[in-house]
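Hi team,

Filling in the usual template for the complex we talked about on Friday. All components are listed, including any nucleic acid strands or ligand strings, so the model treats them as one assembly.

SUBMITTER: L.P.
PURPOSE: interface mapping
COMPONENTS: two
RESIDUES: 700
SEQUENCES:
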Amino acid sequence: MNVNTLADLTAQGKKPDVLFWVGCAGSFDERAKKITKAFVKILNNSGISYAVLGPEESCTGDPAKRSGNEFLFQMQAMANIEVLNSYEITKIVTTCPHCFNTLKNEYPELGGSYEVEHHTQFLKKLLNEGKIKIQGGVFKGKRITFHDPCYLGRANNVYEAPRDLIKKLDAELIEMKNCKSKGLCCGAGGAQMFKEPEKGNKDINIKRTEQAINVKPDIIAAGCPFCNTMMSDGVKSKEKENILPVKDIAELIAEAKDL
Amino acid sequence: MELMPNFLFFIILSIGIGFFVLNIKKLIYNIKLGKDIDRYDNKSERWKNMILLALGQTKMIHRPISGVLHVVVYVGFILINVELLEIVTDGILGTHRVFAPFMGSFYNFLTATFEILAFLVIISVVVFWIRRNMIKIKRFMNPEMKGWPKYDADVILYFEIVLMFLFLSMNATDSLLQDLNTPNYINAGSFPISKYLQPLFNDFSQSNLIILERVFWWLHIIGILIFANYLYYSKHLHILLAFPNTFFANLDSKGRFKNNANVTKEVKLMLDPNADPYAVNSSDSPPEKFGVSDVIDMNWVQLLNAYSCTECGRCTSECPANQTGKKLSPRKIMMDTRDRLTEVGDNYRINNKKFIPDGKELLNDYISPEELWACTSCNACVEACPIGIDPLSIIMDMRQYLVMEQSSAPGDLNNMMGNIENNGAPWPFNNQERLLWANEN
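RESULT (copied from the run log):
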């Protein structure tokens, strides 16, 4: 894949329009890497000027902060801000709502102010500006339900961008019992992704997956690598992984464009 | 002798208001035990929030049944309390329906409106009681609602019903006395609801009716004074505190968790190559404690939140952890905070504005780490609260204490944090391999 790092571009005396913040999941997690690659395919296909940090990127500190380790969070934040500011970054796009939220809301006070967008917002804008085109094709008439990531939806009031993109696929957008501001968490937030859940009578991702299955979708759409993992695990536990795929919006668009 | 009732009324009113003021002072004292936080910025947005959420009840109607019933009780109580102006004036001056001569037919309109509202309030409160005691709606049945909270909720409903009936009975006997051309009972008012209560009193003599009317009148005003003083001891303070609480609520993105400024200082020092690691701390004050383990570590808005909570449980019923059987209940976080704050506030007052350690803390003695670690920080509780209470900020601050002061995170989280420290990612991957995906297809 043709991907430029900021270091390479800078060495060539070039500056990209936007930094793609890949995130730890997008860099290392097998499932999330597919989302990263799908998004990069769209970026490459549309000729957007972008770059990634590669090895210069480090965890935003979100899971540390939500775990209560403010010290580790701020160490990560300060180090990242130093890198970002040294490259004079102004615009960031990311496929992870947790990175998105932290970069957008918690970095400015520590000296890192950037225009930060979630990839669904970014893609929606490209679409409006005519820089990318989306045709329905393979998803025409498919029933797709969108699971709102907490850190995109409630935390930042982004509800429509991902939905608008799904509608552009000529798909039938269907809503679960809990959606938008009342969306039910997948169970991964607040660093729960990295620990066993406390004792209860059910796992949260199972409950959310049941809500999804209840509206009989052909596809569960997600906008967060962690939600994606949780929902995929939920679908697997219901033994439906062969008939009910969980896909990121970027993957849907890349597929529709046959990239 | 003539002036006795006026005098008695004045005494009772003064005692009622006096105690009420004392309670409010206690309340303000307790809330001010919290740490400072600036919530006076962006005033226009704050007023808007208050007008929409508290005055306009826009979030209450997200749940249509309880929402509409609540609006009825709310409007009813506010408007019927306009009548209090007349009752208090009558009480002090020894007059009867003092406003009637000045208002003409508008007075009839007012009394009729108050009666209809009183009737609607009774209906709503009865439905509330049925929802709590017969239908047993799930959010009223959580473990934290056992005992006093359940009793408290019912007492408030009984109070409201009794007050409304006293009000209507007062009008019913009054209008009977008016029909009998009783001296002092001027012909005024329209009574579309209480006329149905009149048959109950038809058989009484005029003099007994006067006694009854006076008893209802006195019980009604005394009841209101008792109710006002009950607020401080109950969960019902929201009828006052919903207004400041919505005004001072967080206006930022819900995803923005505040950065701890003390940590920023430390981190900047660590990253500054010119900093002298052996420099003596110039200030004599001990280093600030990180996070929250007791109520006095919280900011005053978090404490105001605790007193504003009326235990409706919308937060808990939306909480993904609670829905899946975990111990965490955001409502319980608020209830525990309030109970502990009342205890700590009393401790300060009894001990001459000093806190004498009582061997207890909010953490562990009220809120367990198990509850705190079950939170997904999804903000569903914050979104659900009709008056802008933020249980999540308390949960996060308490986690900060657990991790930064006690190093007692669950083992898995310690591994995750170790990975971030060493590899810059929550998993044990080499940071140099961040771009490997680009070589794959």
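MY TAKE: Residues 4-31+63-236 of chain B form one domain. Chain B has a mean pLDDT of 94.

Thanks, L.
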